[in-house]
Structures are given as structure tokens and as C-alpha cells.
Specification:
single chain, 297 residues, mainly beta, 3 domains, 43% strand
């Protein structure tokens, strides 16, 4: 008798197993989906359709993953240190970076690199400062030895412009400290292209010339150093002035530079305006003459 019924038992068992594999319900007595999980409250459920689409709080998902329920349907993603190549095109990640200004942003992989999406446009660093003091720091000896001075610019001595009045030091609208107003140095928080300009004007005074020196010169200088303090480059803008007259000498320098993270950018001057070299040439500190602006591109 057992031999007669054994094939039927096997067939019934296979049909039962196939039914369990095709439709499974957790927290529910029956379901038409391949998988359905219902929470104890019955308000939320997660389903997997026969076509492999997943719905969280959505009874009829239209995409591979659909979480568009009536409310509280945000998607949370985390950070990964995988390269864009390893993660693959289409991957997304969250970057919790307070230094970026927008306090975190989303990046997606195009298969080669991570590309940021910024809700208010590309993060942009802006620095604006005005020089109202007479302070400089001679960093290469000339007519004056290395050191700090507070009477203006000494002759034939490479000098940093120090003690600025900071107006703005912002990263995408968030205050930062990338610019040190005390020494005039800007330090790049990330690699990028930065545009920078500064201008200076000196008080009017006698500029003379003689047969051996038929012109006067003032140089505005942007100096770039790496994170270890080594000089990388200098960009100069030189301006000559005729002699034998009263003139208000000035200069400006605009530069676009590629800075790596940690590189610094700092304004400096060098002048040779023929007057008593034991004296200093003071700045014209009226508003608007001595200003500095740095903008990330």
C-alpha cells in the first residue's frame, strides 16, 4: 500500500514547497506578492513583487526600490571610502564635510570619479579684507633688516602686508578661518582654482629721480607656498613712476592660481621710490585704497 501512495505524497510535497517559495507573508495571513512583511501596527509594510520590485510603505512599487509612501519616506545613505571606479557608475554617497560650508552634500559616481551635488551651487570660498594699518613684515632684508614694522613700507625690502581688517571669510555662506588677518595669509582648505587680487596706495609725497636712476618702481606680489612652507611661485605686477614730482604711488596684482589643500597665498610688496631710505612710505588708509579679495572658482 505504501508503494501505491508514495508518488502522490512526493508530488503534494513539491507543490506545497513551490507555493511557499512563490508567496511568503510575514505578519499577514495571505499575500499576492512574492514577499510581504507587515508591521505589528499594520500601518507599514514591505513587499517584493513577482517582478522583483521592492516597495517600502508602497503597495505597488514602480521602480526597483520605491519608498514613496504618504509621509516619512526619506532615504538614508551613508559614506563610503570606495573609489568611484570600485563603487561603479550610478552609486551615491553622503559626504559629511563641515569644511565645505553646506555642512554635507551628496556625491554620485560616473564610473571614474565622485561628482558632488550641492543644493546651493558649487561650494565657493570668498575672502574680503581691507588694510587700515601701517603694519608690514620684512621677510627678505634690504634697506631694513627682517622684522615687523608699523610705519608703512620700507625701501628696497620685500615685505608682507600684515594686520588686515577682515570683512568676509566665508565658505558657501558659512564663516570660516581660512584667512589669517594678522599676517595676511590665506590657506586653501581644498584643492582648486583661486582668483585673488589686492591693491595698495601710498600717501602722496615727493618722488625724485637722478641721472643714475631715471624711474621709480613699486611691485605688488602674490606669493604661493606649499603646506610645508616652501615657496612654489611668485606672481608680480610692477609699476614705474616718473621722478621729480608729487605723486600718490600705488599698485595692484591679480592672479589665478591652482592651489592644493594646505597651500598658502599671501600678498607682499617691494618698492624703490627715491626718498630717504631710512624712512618709511606710509599707506593711504582712506577707505577703499588697500583691499584684498580671494574667490574660489
Amino acid at each position: 500500500m505504501s508503494k501505491f501512495f508514495s508518488p502522490y505524497i512526493v508530488i503534494i510535497s513539491l507543490l506545497f514547497c513551490n507555493n511557499i517559495a512563490a508567496q511568503t507573508g510575514v505578519g499577514t495571513g495571505s499575500t499576492s506578492n512574492a514577499l510581504e512583511i507587515v508591521t505589528p501596527s499594520g500601518n507599514e509594510k514591505t513587499i517584493v513583487t513577482s517582478k522583483g520590485k521592492v516597495g517600502i510603505g508602497v503597495s505597488e512599487p514602480k521602480l526597483k526600490l520605491d519608498i514613496r509612501s504618504a509621509k516619512n519616506s526619506a532615504l538614508a545613505i551613508g559614506m563610503t571610502e570606495q573609489s568611484a571606479q570600485d563603487a561603479g557608475a550610478g552609486a551615491i554617497r553622503y559626504v559629511p564635510s563641515p569644511a565645505i560650508g553646506v555642512k554635507g552634500y551628496i556625491e554620485y559616481s560616473d564610473g571614474n570619479k565622485w561628482i558632488g551635488y550641492h543644493p546651493y551651487g558649487k561650494p565657493r570660498l570668498v575672502v574680503v579684507a581691507e588694510k587700515k594699518s601701517q603694519d608690514v613684515y620684512v621677510y627678505e632684508p634690504g634697506a631694513k633688516p627682517v622684522g615687523a614694522y608699523n610705519s608703512g613700507i620700507p625701501a628696497r625690502s620685500s615685505s608682507y602686508l600684515t594686520n588686515w581688517t577682515e570683512i568676509l571669510d566665508s565658505d558657501s555662506g558659512t564663516d570660516t578661518d581660512n584667512f589669517d588677518a594678522s599676517n595676511g595669509q590665506f590657506k586653501a582648505p581644498r584643492e582648486g582654482i583661486y582668483w585673488a587680487i589686492f591693491s595698495i596706495a601710498l600717501q602722496s609725497g615727493l618722488i625724485t629721480a637722478n641721472e643714475s636712476f631715471d624711474s621709480n618702481q613699486i611691485e605688488a606680489i602674490w606669493e604661493v607656498r606649499d603646506s610645508s612652507g616652501q615657496l612654489k611661485s611668485k606672481v608680480k605686477s610692477a609699476k614705474a613712476f616718473p621722478g621729480n614730482g608729487i605723486a600718490e604711488a600705488g599698485a595692484s596684482c591679480m592672479v589665478g592660481v591652482h592651489l592644493k589643500k594646505g597651500d598658502s597665498l599671501r600678498p607682499a610688496v617691494w618698492i624703490d621710490l627715491l626718498w630717504d631710505h631710512s624712512r618709511f612710505k606710509p599707506f593711504n588708509t582712506n577707505a577703499g585704497y588697500n583691499v584684498l579679495t580671494i574667490v574660489e572658482q
